[in-house]
């Protein structure tokens, strides 16, 4: 794997590795060399903290340790220069908990989190091989989304602000958001879901039409009231195992998804949950 880094402004890069986006705790830290290079043309005009150029091949990745910042919103964006067909970005806090991710199957990615402090970023090459550029920045991500051709813009950040404030007050932290995904009537959107031991989670969806949200486990199903906005909550149970998130729509509609996570001790366990109705599995 070849690496050619740009100016890092005190950011530090870890050794490259393979595999999925797990909590990044590498044993070797590599100081980034300072070189005279301008940020990529698609970078924001203000707020750039660090940037670089890498060459990755399929099923490899790069983990970055992010310089601390007092800004409310932090983002990491990446763009293929050709050859890399699918790039993902994930942001983690200092404890390795996932804060935000962009895993859409395309040649660019942007993960942003507001109200939390990401300490690490993971860039994954899922398909293809070639050069990419990345930018770590603070502030408004909408111009960068436009440059990269990513739908949603600032509206995606603001979309969850009200619910996020409520959940944070009750022990949850934003884990990840997903930009608009098209869902059609009669074709449910399905994804695996696992709740870690001693953790609780909130899953929320928004759509332009009526949708039904369910979280299925071996012994129980958690359902939300149908509507254009729906939420369910769950705390870990040893009997649950791997769950499945299902979203069905009455008509074709874009779908936005967000997840929050919190320690069971902070949330208050099952008795403190208030979103979604629990029923026996069926």
Shape: globular
Measured as a percent range, the helix fraction is: under 10%
Mean pLDDT: 80
Termini Cα gap: 49 Å
Structural class: mainly beta
- Assembly state of the chains shown: single chain
Q: How large is the radius of gyration?
A: 19 Å
Following the backbone from N to C, one meets helices and strands in this order, namely EEEEEEEEEEEHHHEEEEEEEHE
CATH class categorisation of the largest domain = Mainly Beta
Number of structurally distinct domains: 2
CATH topology heading of the largest domain: Jelly Rolls
CATH A-level architecture of the largest domain: Sandwich
Enumerate how many helices there are, as a single number.
4
Quick structural summary:
By secondary structure, this protein is mostly beta strands. The protein has helices spanning 142-148, 154-158, 161-168, 264-267; strands at residues 3-4, 12-14, 17-18, 29-31, 48-57, 60-65, 73-80, 84-92, 98-102, 108-114, 120-138, 173-183, 189-193, 199-216, 220-223, 227-235, 243-249, 253-263, 277-280.
Describe this structure in words.
There is one protein chain. A hairpin with a 5-residue loop joins strand 8 and strand 9 (98-102). The termini are far apart. The chain has 282 residues and is mainly beta. It has helices spanning 142-148, 154-158, 161-168, 264-267, and strands at residues 3-4, 12-14, 17-18, 29-31, 48-57, 60-65, 73-80, 84-92, 98-102, 108-114, 120-138, 173-183, 189-193, 199-216, 220-223, 227-235, 243-249, 253-263, 277-280. It has two domains: 3-153, Jelly Rolls, CATH 2.60.120; 159-280, Jelly Rolls. Helix content is 9%, strand content 51%. The strands form two sheets. Strands 1, 2, 3, 4, 5, 6, 7, 8, 9, 10 and 11 form an eleven-stranded antiparallel sheet that branches.
């Amino acid at each position: 794997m070849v690496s050619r880094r740009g100016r890092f402004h005190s950011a530090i890069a870890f050794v490259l590795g393979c595999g999925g986006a797990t909590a990044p705790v590498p044993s070797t830290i590599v100081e980034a060399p300072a070189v005279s290079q301008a940020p990529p043309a698609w970078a924001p005009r203000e707020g750039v903290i660090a940037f670089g150029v890498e060459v990755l091949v399929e099923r490899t990745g790069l983990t970055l340790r992010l310089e601390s910042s007092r800004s409310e919103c932090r983002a990491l964006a990446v763009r293929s220069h050709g050859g890399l067909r699918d790039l993902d970005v994930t942001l983690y806090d200092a404890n390795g908990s996932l804060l935000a991710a962009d895993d859409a199957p395309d040649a660019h990615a942007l993960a942003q989190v507001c109200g939390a402090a990401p300490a690490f970023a993971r860039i994954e090459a899922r398909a293809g091989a070639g050069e990419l550029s990345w930018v770590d920045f603070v502030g408004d991500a909408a111009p960068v989304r436009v440059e990269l051709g990513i739908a949603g813009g600032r509206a995606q950040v603001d979309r969850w602000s009200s619910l996020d404030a409520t959940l944070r007050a009750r022990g949850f932290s934003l884990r990840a958001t997903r930009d608009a995904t098209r869902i059609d009537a009669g074709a449910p959107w399905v994804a695996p879901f696992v709740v870690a031991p001693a953790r609780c989670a909130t899953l929320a969806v928004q759509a332009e039409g009526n949708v039904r949200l369910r979280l299925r486990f071996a012994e129980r199903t958690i359902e939300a009231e149908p509507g254009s906005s729906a939420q369910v909550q769950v705390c870990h149970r040893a009997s649950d195992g791997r769950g499945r998130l299902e979203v069905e729509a009455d008509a074709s509609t874009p779908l936005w998804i967000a997840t929050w996570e919190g320690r069971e001790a902070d949330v208050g366990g099952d008795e403190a949950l208030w979103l979604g109705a629990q029923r026996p599995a069926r």
